[in-house]
Inverse folding.
């Protein structure tokens, strides 16, 4: 029997006991891994082990897929009407709401994002996503298509079957909700692999899934490594579709594995190097605030982080001065500290990676305008908010996704030139424009090659608004009605009423 | 009809090599230029330039609609010519080309002309301090690879939605059947499409096809062809620039005929299902499951009807079935027929070559098969039907679904409950009830399982050719 992780929180922002199952969640029960091995889960704030969880492998994926397939054929899929699926999803959201603080605490402990942010936004947004898709579950409609009166032609938007999902460590609960909600609403069964770095909130939700009354096998959670569990999911012959969020490098492997196995449908949400363009006529103080939010939120570990900040020359000095003051004022520290804004990077590996980029910036001749160092314990995972200036377009810190609290501020003059610079990247996930001029806002906004464009704001996401990448930032869209398209199989029905064949 | 290609400005290709285009009697018709990856680069640059200047969002939907409408009109004016060319190059009978293929192709272009000015995004309600909307933008330069079985129809399925939504195209027709595509280039030019909007490269899969699939500046690829090559296209996309992929691949489609079917109609439709286009259709109803109560009568009538089909010269008015498209295909189909014999199935009709010249095969019927036989499992792509007796509804649904493919299926029954219950349970992207092979430009088409990814035709195809951009305008939130 797998253990239950129990933890007592005694912090300025949260006190309480939490209990998290550590087994694999397969066929409605928490079970030991086939290999009986475990994975250590670390607290990124301290580098210390929080607990162990069961380590799934390919064998467990086979078990999970079998359970999911069985559920799809008997107790889920088209056996259960949309309204019932919606009710279960709504029940789950309600249970999550009742455990809101507890979920926030588990997430902040496991992931390192400030508790205040997780409680105030991440968890409520995740709950909102589940409620949003609960509302879609009984509204999955096909079309009736006019051909002629001798026929009835219509389409069914059927659930695909068993879907595999792989999510990253940067916003674990949000990623979990974002993936399972549309998949389940549309009638699919799910086998999902949370990141081996941050599985705890997903495992806690599994208990709520049990409590909500989802039939066993509808949702299965297998924690394990990418090269074992992730690989097994993407090349499984009995998984009909895979959805992946993570690095572009791994995204390619997923697509290749799909092509070599059973040609399963794929959707990918990958990396970004998103430009944030601030014109002379922007509200500078607002631009500064949003720019900070754009790059330092969640320690810069956001795929759509506004990491390239283009500032028009007329306001450049004012912007840089205010941006620097604002960034310096961020309190970095323990996620459960009273005013903490920025927590640790997720792991020592990631911290070293970010520090490596900072070093490359220095080596390539950029100027460290602010920060550029570790904060506190030199072996820890905290990095000071960092601003680089005087960069060249070919520098690594300008080209590559850093995934940390490191911004590049670039002066520009000309609208056409900045659009070209902004679009000069293999990525195309998001972008932003700050201006008060309506013509400039839309002319520039529409010209940016990105799946999301923010005007006078940054990092805004909504359950109803599609999200996804142009170019090498991904394939497909999540959120909104758009996500549902990726979780249904369209079947065209042609019923012959009167036509005779000779 | 000359050997040129590339952009709609006729240009001589960069490599002076040529592909011989044969017709199915085995005699050479003409030679066309052979493109290579270098020509793909030239075409992509031309397409990108057009996208940035004279096409894409530089031309509104109404403008694109007008040109597509004009193209449909020109195709109609040249319907006979296109039909003759298609028949000559592919081997299908002139009658089929004239009465089915070319009209479907024209209708498809006309259908998408109607969509061009109706490409809508959404405005989502969030709250009054925001404006949130999505734009459905053209993707840019898209690559399209089409097969030889329905050359002109396949071309229009691809270019219709791609052009309607504002994309520019680099297309590779089959090296076996490029002639109608080449003629279309002239009509496209005449219809007023700016140079570079549509580019056609005749060449081989391993050179031109591979170059398109792995091109770093092509943002999306659509492929129709074999499942084997479909995998390679997807792998190339994964390894290059993660371009979006849609695939229309093979099928081994079940045609289920129940005791209470209208028997004579079932026979006629089954003939159409097996032998239309000489069986060279991904939707061919190649596995015919007949319930035991009507099995003997069905088999007798089906055999007679199939025997009466006239196999011969595509330009003869009473030919039903012409030759297979090439020697390769001919050999492949004959190989499958031999395997059927070797594995112990019974040949009820045909099973042999027709005549001594060209690639004509007699309509063939096998019975007494077992599920594991090659002729029951694998896609033959020829005029070969397998007839299987069944008893139990539950059992036949399971047998029908027991395939890696999931492209199409059919059910024949006059009982509303039986017909629809079985039909809804079949794992296929298209299910026909009391008919087969009915295609409409407004009804989606595509595969479950290893028969493909994505849907063509209908409104659904538009999603394959648009990039969704969400724009969020802050009207009052203070940070």
């Amino acid at each position: 029997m797998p253990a239950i992780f129990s933890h007592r929180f005694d912090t300025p922002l949260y006190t309480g006991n939490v209990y998290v199952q550590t087994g694999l969640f397969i066929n409605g029960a928490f079970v030991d891994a086939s290999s009986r091995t475990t994975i250590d889960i670390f607290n990124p704030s301290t580098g210390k082990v929080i607990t162990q969880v069961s380590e799934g492998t390919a064998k467990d994926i086979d078990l999970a897929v079998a359970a999911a397939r069985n559920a799809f054929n008997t107790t889920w899929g088209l056996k259960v009407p949309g309204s019932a699926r919606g009710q279960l999803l709504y029940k789950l959201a309600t249970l999550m709401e009742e455990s809101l603080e507890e979920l926030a605490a588990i997430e902040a402990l496991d992931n390192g994002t400030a508790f205040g942010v997780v409680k105030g936004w991440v968890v409520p947004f995740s709950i909102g996503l589940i409620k949003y898709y609960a509302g879609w579950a009984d509204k999955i409609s096909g079309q009736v298509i006019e051909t002629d009166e001798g026929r009835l032609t219509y389409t069914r938007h059927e659930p695909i079957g068993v879907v595999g999902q792989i999510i990253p460590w940067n916003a674990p609960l949000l990623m979990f909700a974002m993936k399972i909600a549309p998949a389940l609403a549309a009638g699919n069964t799910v086998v999902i692999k949370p990141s081996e770095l941050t599985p705890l909130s997903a495992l806690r939700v599994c208990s709520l899934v049990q409590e909500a009354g989802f039939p066993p096998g509808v949702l299965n959670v297998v924690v394990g490594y990418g090269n074992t569990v992730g690989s097994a999911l993407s090349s499984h012959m009995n998984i009909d579709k895979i959805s992946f969020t993570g690095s572009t490098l791994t995204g390619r492997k997923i697509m290749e594995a799909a092509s070599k196995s059973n040609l399963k449908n794929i959707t990918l949400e990958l990396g970004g190097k998103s430009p944030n363009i601030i014109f002379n006529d922007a509200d500078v103080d607002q631009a500064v605030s949003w720019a900070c939010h754009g790059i330092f939120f969640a320690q810069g570990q956001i795929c759509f982080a506004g990491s390239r900040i283009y500032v028009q020359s007329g306001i450049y000095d004012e912007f840089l001065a205010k941006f620097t003051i604002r960034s310096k004022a961020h309190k970095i520290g323990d996620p459960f500290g009273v005013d903490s804004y920025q927590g640790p990077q997720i792991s020592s590996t990631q911290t070293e990676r970010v520090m490596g980029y900072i070093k490359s910036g220095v080596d390539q001749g950029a100027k460290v305008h602010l920060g550029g160092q570790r904060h506190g314990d030199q072996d820890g995972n905290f990095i000071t908010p960092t601003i680089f200036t005087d960069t060249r377009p070919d520098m690594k810190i300008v080209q590559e996704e850093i995934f940390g609290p490191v911004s590049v501020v670039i002066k520009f003059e000309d609208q056409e030139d900045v659009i070209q610079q902004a679009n000069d990247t293999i990525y195309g996930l998001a972008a932003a424009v700050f201006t008060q001029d309506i013509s400039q806002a839309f002319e520039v906004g529409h010209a940016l090659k990105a799946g999301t464009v923010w005007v006078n704001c940054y990092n805004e996401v909504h359950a109803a608004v599609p999200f996804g990448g142009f170019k090498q930032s991904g394939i497909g869209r999540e959120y909104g009605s758009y996500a549902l398209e990726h979780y249904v199989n369209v079947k065209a029905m042609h019923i012959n009423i009167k036509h005779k064949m000779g | 009809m000359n050997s040129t290609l590339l952009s709609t400005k006729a240009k001589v290709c960069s490599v002076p090599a040529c592909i011989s285009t044969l017709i199915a009697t085995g005699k050479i018709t003409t030679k066309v230029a052979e493109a290579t990856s270098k020509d793909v680069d030239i075409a992509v640059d031309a397409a990108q330039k057009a996208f940035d200047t004279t096409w894409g969002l530089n031309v509104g939907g109404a403008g694109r609609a007008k040109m597509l409408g004009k193209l449909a009109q020109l195709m109609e004016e040249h319907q006979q010519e296109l039909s003759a060319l298609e028949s000559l190059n592919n081997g299908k009978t002139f009658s089929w080309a004239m009465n089915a293929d070319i009209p479907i192709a024209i209708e498809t272009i006309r259908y998408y002309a109607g969509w061009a000015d109706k490409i809508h995004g959404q405005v989502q309600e969030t709250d009054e301090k925001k404006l949130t909307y999505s734009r459905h933008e053209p993707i840019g330069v898209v690559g399209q690879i089409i097969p030889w079985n329905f050359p002109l129809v396949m071309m229009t399925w691809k270019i219709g939605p791609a052009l309607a939504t504002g994309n520019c195209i680099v297309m590779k027709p089959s090296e076996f059947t490029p002639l109608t595509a080449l003629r279309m280039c002239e009509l496209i030019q005449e219809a007023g499409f700016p140079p570079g909007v549509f580019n056609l490269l005749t060449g081989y899969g391993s050179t031109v096809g591979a170059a398109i699939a792995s091109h770093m500046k092509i943002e999306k690829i659509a492929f129709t062809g074999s499942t084997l090559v479909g995998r390679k296209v997807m792998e190339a996309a994964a390894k290059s620039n993660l371009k979006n992929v849609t695939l229309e691949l093979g099928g081994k489609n079940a045609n289920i005929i129940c005791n209470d079917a209208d028997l004579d109609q079932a026979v006629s439709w089954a003939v159409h299902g097996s032998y239309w286009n000489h069986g060279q259709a991904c939707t061919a109803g190649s596995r015919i499951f007949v319930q035991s109560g009507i099995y003997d009568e069905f088999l007798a009538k089906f055999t007679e009807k199939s025997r009466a089909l006239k196999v011969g010269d595509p330009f003869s008015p009473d030919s039903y079935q012409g030759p297979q498209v090439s020697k390769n295909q001919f050999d492949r189909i004959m190989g499958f027929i031999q395997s059927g014999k070797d594995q112990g199935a019974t040949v009820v009709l045909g099973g042999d070559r027709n005549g001594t010249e060209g690639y004509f095969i007699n309509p063939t019927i096998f019975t007494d098969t077992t599920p594991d036989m090659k002729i029951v499992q694998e896609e033959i792509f020829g005029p070969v039907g397998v007839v299987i007796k069944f008893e139990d509804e539950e059992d036949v649904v399971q047998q029908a679904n027991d395939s890696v493919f999931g492209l199409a299926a059919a059910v024949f029954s006059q009982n509303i409950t039986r017909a629809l219950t079985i039909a809804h349970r079949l794992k296929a992207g298209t299910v026909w009830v009391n008919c087969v092979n009915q295609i409409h430009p407004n009804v989606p088409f595509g595969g479950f399982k290893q028969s493909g990814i994505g849907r063509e035709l209908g409104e659904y195809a538009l999603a394959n050719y648009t990039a969704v951009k969400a724009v969020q305008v802050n009207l009052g939130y203070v940070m």
User: Anything to note?
Assistant: The two ends of chain A are 67 Å apart (CA to CA). Chain A touches chain B through 69 residues (CB under 8 Å). The longest strand of chain A covers residues 151-159. Chain A has a mean pLDDT of 97.
